[in-house]
Amino acid sequence: MAKAYDHLFKLLLIGDSGVGKTCLIIRFAEDNFNSTYISTIGEPTGPPEHSLNLTINHVAKAELLAGGVGQWEECLWRALPSILPHEILHLLRDTAGQERFKTITTAYYRGAMGIILVYDITDEKSFENIQNWMKSIKENASAGVERLLLGNKCDMEAKRKVQKEQANKLAREHGIRFFETSAKSSMNVDEAFSSLARDILLKSGNRRSGNSSKPSTTDLKTCDKKNTKCSLG
Ligand SMILES: Nc1nc2c(ncn2[C@@H]2O[C@H](COP(=O)(O)OP(=O)(O)OP(=O)(O)O)[C@@H](O)[C@H]2O)c(=O)[nH]1
């Protein structure tokens, strides 16, 4: 059977419980949002296997797979036509943020090409914990894995506890990109995933050509569809 994509990226979303990791994936993959909170935790014994097929943009099949490997919960596939020169299929791995699952082993990160660190702009603790997640990546993920910092729920400006400048500073210190996103209003969700995809793609191209520099923000801006101002959803 012919392959339905040109590039396959394995991405991992990490962050405290309730910051919106699942909602970001659902927004990106299905362009949908549900305010009902169902925490992403696998039963220790593993829930019964099930799968759900979704048609996305009439091009890609999305599969939601639950259960199986410990705390791996969901694998969502999505084609990304038009944003990158080639059609790109993302494999997203969403993780549970529960305290009891914080001890993440190398197996958890194995094969991830990009890691998205998510905090909630209305929850200071989730931002403070980004440092712990960074440490966890350093200890467990492959060196040089692309990382991206997201401050989610930016539609909730009135409840903001984490200033954009704080996160910008943290991202600069770690040499990674930062976006404020809203899975609810969809603000910056496509942009964030796409920029990570482009960075992975560029890195793999650069590795082949021996150049390791990152793309400039202006390069990325040429592909941005929406502005980066966050409004109430
Ligand atoms: N206002 C607002 N609410 C959001 C947003 N993203 C997620 N939420 C809400 O936050 C709650 C938690 O979202 P989830 O996506 O389940 O969070 P999670 O990080 O996957 O949580 P765990 O599975 O426990 O790790 C839900 O009630 C969502 O509706 C957002 O961008 N804006």
From TrEMBL:
Membrane topology designation: Lipid-anchor
GO terms of molecular function: G protein activity; GTP binding
Cell compartment(s), UniProt: Membrane
InterPro entries: P-loop_NTPase, Small_GTP-bd, Small_GTPase, Small_GTPase_Rab
Alphabetized Pfam families for the sequence: Ras (PF00071)
Ranges of Polar residues composition bias in the record: 207-220
Region feature (Disordered): 204-233
Keyword ATP-binding: no
Main localization, broad class: membrane
Record keywords, A-Z: GTP-binding, Hydrolase, Lipoprotein, Nucleotide-binding, Prenylation
SUPFAM superfamilies named among the record's database cross-references: P-loop containing nucleoside triphosphate hydrolases
Keyword Protease: no
Catalytic activity, as annotated: GTP + H2O = GDP + phosphate + H(+)
GO cellular component terms listed in the entry, alphabetical order: membrane
EC number in record: 3.6.5.2
Family: Belongs to the small GTPase superfamily. Rab family.
Name listed for the protein in its UniProt record: small monomeric GTPase
Species for this entry: Hipposideros armiger
